[in-house]
Amino acid sequence: GQPVLLGEPPQTQYDLHFSLFGIPVRVHPFFWVIAILLGFSAGKLINLLVWVVAMFLAILVHELGHALVMRRYGFSPRIILYGMGGLASSGPAQAYGSAGSSTQAQILISAAGPGAGFLLAGLVVAVLALVGPGVQVVLLNGVVPFVAPVLEVGSVPDPLTVFTWDLLFISIFWGVMNLLPVYPLDGGQIAQRVLVAVNPADGVRQSLLLSVVTGIAVAVIGLTLMQQPFIAVMFGFLAYFSYRALQAYQGRGPWG
User: Fold this and answer.
1) What pLDDT shows up at residue 153?
2) Are 222 and 198 in contact (CB under 8 A)?
3) Which neighbouring-strand residues pair with 163?
4) Which of 62, 80, 125, 130 could tie 113 with a disulfide, CB 3.0–4.6 Å?
């Protein structure tokens, strides 16, 4: 998922608690705050509400993907939605050295979140193609290809069309961004597992260095080609976080 960098957020009296497929879910109030802020440019109140619902559903499906694969490997997962994402945490596997601690298992667990989002997007596209207006490929900011519902020129999208657009955007675009090899995103964790398996002595350092370089590159692209300051700021921060972690790992940084 998109882990909280400092661990699980503290519980509050305003948390929403429920269970899904036997997996406990907690929604921190800060999740709703960030969802509203991210959707504030939607204009109409109905479009803002639609965005919040779509973000909640898409991220819940993402974290559920992680959690279900965790449970498959003997963990006891729980889901926390917080900030602009969430995390799937777990208790220890049933036995030390179990299949859940293997490199393959950890890679599958990390990949299952974006995979669940892509599956959700595929189902939405299938429904749009079969019983809806169909889908088309558009360019976000004139750069990034994206699958979206067909909309007649000059027409105002209804709430359902806005919902499907938002759901596809979060499931696909955020899912792809989450697979970039930038820590602590899923792609960063996958890259670390792969590099450590290939080079146990230096894999962690290599993964952190890759995270720094990729984060900087995405920040520059976000600011220039995509003209999205939010992406630039977010990946710039993640690059800095990875740089600090790299310095600490090498034993000469502020955390060393």
Assistant:
1) 60
2) no
3) none
4) 62
Tell me: the pLDDT tens digits for 87-96? Answer: 888 866 554 4
Task: Return the pLDDT at 34.
Answer: 92
141 CB-near residues (< 8 Å, 6+ apart): 225, 226, 227, 228
In this structure, are residues 187 and 158 in contact, taking their beta carbons and an 8 Å threshold? Answer: no
Judge contact between 18 and 91, C-beta under 8 A. Answer: no
Question: Exposed, middle or buried by CB within 10 Å (0-12, 13-18, 19+), for 144?
Answer: middle
pTM, whole model, 2 decimals? 0.86
Q: In which residue ranges of the chain is pLDDT below 70?
A: 1-7, 42, 91-100, 141-144, 152-156, 252-256
User: Sign of dihedral through CA atoms 175, 222, 213, 205?
Assistant: negative
Q: What is the DSSP string of 133-182?
A: S-EEEEEETTTEEEEEE---TTPPPPHHHHHHHHHHIIIIIIHHHHTSS-
